[in-house]
Design brief:
heterodimer; A: 121 residues; alpha+beta; Alpha-Beta Plaits; four-stranded antiparallel β-sheet; two-stranded antiparallel sheet; 2 helices; 6 strands; 29% helix; B: 406 residues; mainly alpha; Rna Polymerase Sigma Factor, Chain: A; Serine Threonine Protein Phosphatase 5, Tetratricopeptide repeat; 72% helix; 0% strand; elongated
């Protein structure tokens, strides 16, 4: 099994109203339940707004603390899930559901190195 | 002399057997890089041994057996450091199969054309691994520096390994979608070769032959898929007109002006038979319809004798299946013949294809035929400015000159 990071990218700015988000969140909860039932779920969570991020940069002996996300952009990672799948095609089946539910661009990326032992999620 | 002949044979066997051998080794090792290395080592050994020992009875089997031994050696060496002993044992114990299953090659073709890979990488991998072209040949065909192409291929192979793109033929329910991607790669390879004019490196023109070979492999491996047959038919029918398509100096000769006695009757017969065969299955697809349109052209003794109404009807079906401005443009060309240039010009003017040289060329032709010579000359000039191939530019420039009377 290989672990994959499934990242969701969302536009910065105004958060859609609850009546828009509620059905999406319900479907995401269903998807998480399906991932758990399939033994594919490792961990997942949503992130607070990108403006809440802080970046640290080592400069010589000092570490500089600055406000904001690392990269400037109109969209940022809004949340992620870590899943386990036998191969990319299987991971893409899950990723496709994230894309359909959220309408957001979804990045599916394997973790490096030796496949991790199953956590039994 | 004899040595040259042997070398030629190794090259011929390479072209025929490379993809087959790699696919068998990939199945047993699960590692595309290792499989390719082992098969290349086997061919290097063949190049040394065959000139002296003679060609074995089953050169493909010899290559696979030799490559398998190299892979086992490699696994054993690595077993000292890692845990590859089991893999080495499994590989060594496997019964040599002299008639590898077609499915191995098919699975590898689906890996090469996986949608998770960028299109240029898919094309390069398909030509390299299934087509048996060398990296240098693929680079020459696509006019990119060899190191660029080598890097493109090695990145793609790293992604296949790291992201775990699986080696398997897609399941029945995902096959139509995935097959479309494979067919698109083969079609693109053909078009790259087809749009190349005279004076281009021979490797580019060779792309047409490679695409036909790949399409034949697909038909052979997926006999039940009418779209694979449709694509092969389309490529064969296009190939049948290749000689007639360029005049002295490589200037493009458009379909209506081609010397039809130069069309290859055997290719037309094979392509037309394939069209009838796949259409009879009642599962229409865009390649089948495009092939059917080419078959109607091929059946006509002259441009005037062409059944243009039938072609318009086929474009109607195509526009339903694969809607898009380019299909609408081609349909308008047929409408011009069936109903007159005025009707077609109205259709063309409604399309937003500014910047596409064929759009300007078609519009120019329709303007000329409706008596608007000055506008037509300007459109021809614009089309020739945009056309990518030299032979096409010469043709369009000629038309522009004739209309403006210079």
């Amino acid at each position: 099994m290989t672990q994959y990071l499934i990242s969701m990218y969302q536009p910065d700015g105004v958060v859609p109203p609850p009546e828009f988000l509620a059905p999406i969140m319900a479907k995401l909860a269903e998807l998480t339940a399906d991932l758990k039932a399939a033994g594919a779920y490792v961990y997942g969570n949503g992130l607070a707004d990108a403006s809440s991020a802080t970046v640290l940069r080592a400069d010589g002996g000092e570490v500089l603390v600055t406000d904001g996300p690392y990269l400037e952009g109109k969209e940022h990672m809004g949340g992620f899930d870590i899943i386990e799948a036998p191969d990319l095609d299987a991971a893409l089946v899950w990723g496709r559901r994230f894309a359909q539910i959220t309408g957001l661009p979804i990045e599916v990326r394997p973790f490096a190195g030796v496949p991790a032992p199953s956590t039994g999620g | 002399m004899a040595e040259e002949r042997e070398a030629g044979t190794v090259a011929a066997v390479f072209r025929e057997e490379y993809g087959r051998a790699v696919s068998v080794l990939v199945r047993t090792t699960g590692d595309l890089g290792l499989a390719e290395d082992a098969v290349q080592e086997a061919f290097a050994a063949a190049a040394e041994r065959w000139p002296a020992d003679g060609i074995p009875d089953h050169p493909g089997a010899w290559i696979i057996t030799t490559a398998r031994r190299r892979a086992v050696d490699r696994f054993r060496r690595e077993a000292v450091r890692g845990s590859k002993e089991a893999a080495a044992a499994a590989l060594a114990d496997e019964e040599p199969r002299h008639e590898p299953l077609g499915d191995d090659r098919l699975a590898l073709l689906f890996v090469c054309c996986h949608p998770a890979l960028a299109m240029p990488a898919r094309v390069a991998l398909a030509l390299r691994i299934i087509g048996g072209l060398t990296t240098a040949q693929v680079a020459a065909a696509f006019l990119v520096p060899e190191p660029t192409l080598a890097q493109r291929i090695s990145r793609a192979k790293a992604k296949i390994r790291d992201a775990r793109i699986p080696y398997r033929v897609p399941a029945a329910e995902e096959l139509p979608e995935r097959l479309a991607g494979v067919l698109a790669v083969v079609y693109l390879i053909y078009n790259e070769g087809y749009s190349a004019g005279l004076g281009e490196p021979p490797a580019r023109a060779g792309l047409c032959a490679e695409a036909v070979r790949l399409a034949r492999v697909l038909v052979q491996l997926l006999p039940g898929e009418p779209e694979a047959r449709g694509l092969l038919a389309l490529l064969l029918l296009s190939e049948s007109r290749r000689t007639a398509r360029s005049g002295p100096g490589g200037v493009l000769v458009p379909l209506a002006e081609q010397d039809r006695s130069l069309w290859d009757a055997d290719l037309i017969a094979e392509g037309t038979a394939l069209v009838h065969e796949c259409l009879a299955r009642g599962r229409l697809g865009q390649y089948q319809l495009q092939a059917a349109i080419q078959a109607v052209h091929a059946a006509a003794a002259s441009a005037e004798a062409t059944d243009w109404r039938r072609i318009v009807r086929l474009y109607d079906l195509l526009a339903e299946l694969a809607p898009g401005p380019v299909v609408a443009l081609n349909r308008a060309v047929a409408v011009a013949e069936a109903e007159g240039p005025g009707a077609a010009l109205a259709l063309v003017d409604a399309l937003d294809l500014t910047g596409y040289h064929v759009f300007h060329a078609v519009r120019a032709d329709l303007l000329a035929r409706t008596g608007r010579a000055a506008e037509a000359a300007a459109e021809y000039a614009e089309a020739s400015r945009l056309a990518p191939a030299a032979g096409e530019r010469s043709y369009l420039e000629g038309r522009a000159r004739r209309l403006s009377g210079t």
